[in-house]
Specification:
mainly alpha; elongated; Phosphatase PAP2 family protein; transmembrane; membrane; PAP2/HPO_sf; PAP2/HPO
């Protein structure tokens, strides 16, 4: 954690807390939420609705996680390291715990389910504060910039992830599925997860070592099993060796000779 990252983490945490307090106290931010909601952007610019319905999928956890995991899995295979996939898993875990707990704790209703004009709609059984779409867009696409290997790639991917996250958040406001304050808190929540990832790096390094050691043990056991399996050569066209040994003749059973043994006696033919 560099000083710059620590300063960003502290500033983002203060911004996060300020948004929560502003909504809890029903300040001007809640009034702005209601003004935008009553303005109904989806009715003002209906021609954008079809495109933004698809664009907002870039903030859905399932599709975005699959796409990013596929890319990071390929990188893990090429670089012979599990760090990219482990970073993605740790980021999504932090996101689910932090955002999910606040959602359930505050229980805010969305604009489409609001019951009283001017109310913050808190503790009413909802789960939209902060915006999960927005926070997920920040984390899922921001992890690509976090794992970039060159400064140039990091700059480009940071700009791209910021544009995608900004667009996803504003799209949810346009569609009327989130208040503006939900989106502001979602941006802050996602950024806090990315800024906290360096603290997880030592744990991820230990997890990677443990997983690779377990993989090596499994491989060694499979090799040992292959060595224990006997491999008997079989002549081409010849009989295959049996799995059970042939029982020797007992004392009451006469020894049997195969027909046509060299040196054996032939029974003289009788004239008929």
């Amino acid at each position: 954690m560099t000083r710059t990252r620590l300063a960003l983490f502290g500033g983002t945490s203060a911004f996060y807390l300020a948004i929560v307090v502003a909504v809890l106290l029903s300040t001007w931010l809640v009034t702005l939420d209601w003004k935008i909601m009553l303005f109904r952007p989806y009715q003002q610019w209906p021609e954008l609705h079809a495109f933004l319905d698809y664009y907002v999928v870039l903030g859905q956890r399932g599709p975005t996680a699959v796409m990013v995991a596929a890319w990071l899995g390929w990188r893990s295979w090429r670089q012979h390291t599990l760090r990219p996939l482990l970073c993605l898993g740790a980021a999504l875990l932090l996101l689910n715990v932090s955002v999910g707990s606040v959602k359930l704790g505050l229980g805010r209703l969305g604009p489409h389910y609001a019951t009283q004009v001017g109310s913050a709609e808190l503790f009413a059984g909802g789960d939209i504060f902060p915006s999960g779409h927005t926070a997920n867009a920040v984390v899922t696409w921001g992890i690509l910039a976090y794992l970039a290997t060159t400064p140039r790639a990091r700059r480009y991917l940071s700009a791209l992830s910021a544009v995608v996250a900004l667009g996803v958040g504003l799209t949810t406001v346009y569609l009327g599925t989130h208040w503006l304050s939900d989106v502001l808190l979602g941006w802050a929540a996602g950024l806090l997860v990315l800024l906290a990832l360096p603290w997880c790096e030592p744990v991820l390094a230990v997890a990677e070592s443990w997983i690779l050691a377990a993989r090596d043990r499994v491989r060694e056991r499979l090799r040992d099993r292959r060595r224990l399996v006997p491999s008997l050569p079989v002549a081409s066209g010849g009989p295959r060796p049996g799995f059970f040994p042939t029982r020797p003749p007992g004392p009451e059973e006469p020894a049997r000779e195969p027909v046509g043994v060299a040196g054996g006696r032939r029974t003289p033919a009788t004239g008929g």
